[in-house]
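Exercise 7. Given the encoded structure of a 345-residue chain, write a plausible sequence.
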């Protein structure tokens, strides 16, 4: 029998022991011939590489820049930000990651307003079950006993009826005892792993200790089709992770370039601020003191226009974030729900 309370305490300490986190992750994706054929028939394209730059504060501010490299070689970028109350999504021209084309504002971060899961990159997303922090979800998980993963003692817990994509699945977590980090997650279509069909597995290949905290820096996710064949393999590698570095407030309050179409999903209005109006709009205040960082705001810098952009407060009364079409297609790499979702039949 696992010491559930000790595991909960260690997991909570990991998730609440930092003020900020910065994470750069590169993923390479290998798709089955069947998956590629289906997407080609539908006129779409799958990602063969995805690069993530993620920043989060303990007070709930978040920023995620995603750059997809598709199988046809095209590049697509989407940026998501959230300031704790409101957020935005900026979409960029296909093949032109420096040219924004549209923005959406609303109430939630990235696609979290319309799905059950969290939009955090690997491995941070595995600290959650749906949107519930792992230490909270553990209180109701089924204790499945002990096991070893790569020679390390682990405690196993089953989370039943987890909403994954549009289906309910059962996720078996193996959590390392020495650091309380998940190192293997198996997905099943039923509560008994000995009889249920396996839908996929995520597994750590390397765990490093960064600033005193264990973190998975290399991992592989394997998604299976209904016949048990490999549908997709995703290799994830953390290029950089840093805790407690200062982050400029503007990182979470992006500027929107003049001429970019803005969709406000709260009011239902669509506007395209003209350049003349944009020139008169106030810029966000400069960051001073503890919030200052050496690097300029990344999102504002990426707009790349000579004219003064529209200020955040002039357009973002509330925020609701909607993913672009490419992110919906290539989002297979972003979160466990999409990867393990069952195909009909």
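Solution.
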């Amino acid at each position: 029998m696992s010491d559930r309370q000790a595991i909960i305490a260690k997991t909570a300490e990991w998730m609440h022991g930092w003020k900020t986190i910065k994470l750069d992750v590169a993923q390479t994706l290998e798709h089955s011939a069947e998956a590629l054929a289906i997407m080609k028939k539908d006129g779409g394209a799958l990602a063969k590489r995805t690069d993530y730059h993620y920043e989060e504060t303990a007070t709930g501010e978040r920023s995620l820049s995603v750059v997809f490299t598709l199988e046809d070689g095209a590049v697509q970028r989407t940026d998501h930000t959230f300031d704790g109350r409101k957020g935005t999504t900026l979409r960029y021209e296909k093949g032109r990651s420096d040219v924004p084309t549209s923005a959406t504002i609303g109430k939630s971060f990235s696609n979290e307003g319309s799905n059950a899961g969290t939009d955090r990159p690997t491995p941070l997303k595995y600290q959650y079950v749906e949107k519930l922090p792992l230490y909270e979800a553990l209180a109701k998980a089924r204790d499945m006993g002990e096991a070893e993963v790569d020679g390390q003692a682990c405690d196993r817990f089953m989370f039943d009826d987890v909403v994954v994509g549009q289906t309910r699945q059962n996720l078996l977590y193996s959590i390392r005892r020495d650091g309380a980090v998940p190192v293997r997650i198996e997905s099943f279509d039923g509560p008994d792993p000995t009889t249920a069909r396996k839908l996929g597995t995520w597994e750590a290949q390397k765990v490093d200790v960064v600033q005193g905290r264990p973190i998975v820096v290399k991992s592989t996710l394997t998604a299976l089709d209904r016949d048990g064949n490999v549908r997709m393999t995703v290799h994830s590698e953390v290029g950089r992770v840093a805790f407690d570095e200062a982050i400029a407030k503007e990182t979470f309050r992006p500027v929107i370039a003049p001429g970019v179409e803005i969709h406000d999903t709260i009011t239902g209005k669509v506007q395209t601020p003209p350049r003349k109006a944009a020139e008169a709009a106030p810029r966000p205040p400069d960051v001073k003191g503890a919030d200052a960082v050496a690097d300029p705001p990344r999102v504002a810098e990426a707009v790349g226009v000579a004219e003064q952009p529209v200020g955040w407060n002039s357009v973002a009364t509330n925020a609701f974030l909607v993913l672009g079409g490419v992110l919906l297609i290539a989002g297979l790499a972003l979160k466990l729900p999409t990867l393990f979702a069952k195909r009909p039949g």
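Remark. The chain is about 15% helix and 40% strand. Students should compare their own answers with the one above.
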